[in-house]
Q: What sequence folds into this?
């Protein structure tokens, strides 16, 4: 399931609500109709979308053993994976963690994914770098993904994929661990593909890297399309609220782009200084998908900043501001 990494072990009402919202987003992102299967259903409906795995058994038949890459439960002194390589691995216990590293000698786009058959491992994938993973603060955590529709469009609740455009040269670390639901052990294949860095063109609104350069958008207006053409690109937007309004700000990938990961910050006013009391809302901390924010706002002028999570470039995203609970 897509969820916040830091809350991976939580279950219950509060998280369920956010999961539904995130799943709804993923449907839009994928551009592909598939039936959302909430975690709750998986836990409460044995035999339907669950795994028939006995203790120490894989699929109830084959014993689940530690893979050849163990021990690799910490990022230190782990093995490597290279471009085009696939590694057969297992999450043989519910607390198994598999770390692996790779080196980019020049800027490149990286795709790392887990695959397998339904009923095997249910993975969560993290990409750190460059440099030694900062698990405590997440300072070099680039992406997290639990379920990716590109890995398995039909039953995409087990395997994970991360595509990170234009990572700088350096050493990167991949972490695979089970989704914390007590039934995530199993076999999986870990694959890495490295392709040349892509060139992303600056959008027509550039430069819009300060609040003073923000593009005006309207509540209920059509979506605008932008790119994040450099790792440090920030796109500013501004809109006016004339009477108290519940507003939804949505970012999404353009057609064919499901890999983006935006961070969205909403400020009151036009003078964006980044002070905490300026911030009316944020979205998408550690969630590997496009940001969306819903807030009831008093009248005034607001400013939106969009940037790429993990300083990633994005070849095309849309932003739309809509009114919730009324005419759009
Ligand atoms: Ca393992
Ligand atoms: Ca391990
Ligand atoms: Ca831009
Ligand atoms: Ca910009």
A:
């Amino acid at each position: 399931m897509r969820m916040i990494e830091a809350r991976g072990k939580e279950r219950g009402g509060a998280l369920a609500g956010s999961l539904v919202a995130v799943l709804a987003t993923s449907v839009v992102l994928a551009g592909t109709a598939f039936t959302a299967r909430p975690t709750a259903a998986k836990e409460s409906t044995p035999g339907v979308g669950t795994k028939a795995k006995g203790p120490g058994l894989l699929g109830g038949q084959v014993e689940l053993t530690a893979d050849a890459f163990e021990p690799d439960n910490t990022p230190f002194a782990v093995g490597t994976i290279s471009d085009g390589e696939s590694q057969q691995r297992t999450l043989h216990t519910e607390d198994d963690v598999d770390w692996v590293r790779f080196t980019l000698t020049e800027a490149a786009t990286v795709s790392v994914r887990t695959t397998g058959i339904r009923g095997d491992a249910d993975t969560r994938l993290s990409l750190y770098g460059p440099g030694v993973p900062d698990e405590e603060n997440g300072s070099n955590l680039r992406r997290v993904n639990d379920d990716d529709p590109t890995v398995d469009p039909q039953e995409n609740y087990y395997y994970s994929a991360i595509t990170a455009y234009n990572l700088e040269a350096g050493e990167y670390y991949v972490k695979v661990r089970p989704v914390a639901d007590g039934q995530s052990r199993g076999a999986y294949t870990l694959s890495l593909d490295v392709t040349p860095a892509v060139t992303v063109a600056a959008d027509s609104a550039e430069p819009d890297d300060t609040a003073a350069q923000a593009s005006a958008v309207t509540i209920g207006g059509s979506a605008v399309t932008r790119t994040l053409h450099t790792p440090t690109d920030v796109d500013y937007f501004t809109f006016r609220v004339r009477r108290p309004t519940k507003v939804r700000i949505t970012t999404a990938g353009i057609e064919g782009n499901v890999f983006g990961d935006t961070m969205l910050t909403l400020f009151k006013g036009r003078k964006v200084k980044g002070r905490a009391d300026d911030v009316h809302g944020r979205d998408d901390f550690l969630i590997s998908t496009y940001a969306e924010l819903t807030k009831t706002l008093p009248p005034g002028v607001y400013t939106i900043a969009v940037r790429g999570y993990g300083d990633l470039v994005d070849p095309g995203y849309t932003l739309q501001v809509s009114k919730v609970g009324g005419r759009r």
Q: What stands out?
A: The first strand starts at residue 57 and ends at 58. The chain has two helices and 19 strands. Residues 203, 206, 226-229, 233, 235 surround calcium ion (ligand 3) (CB under 6 Å). Confidence is low (pLDDT under 50) at residues 1-61.
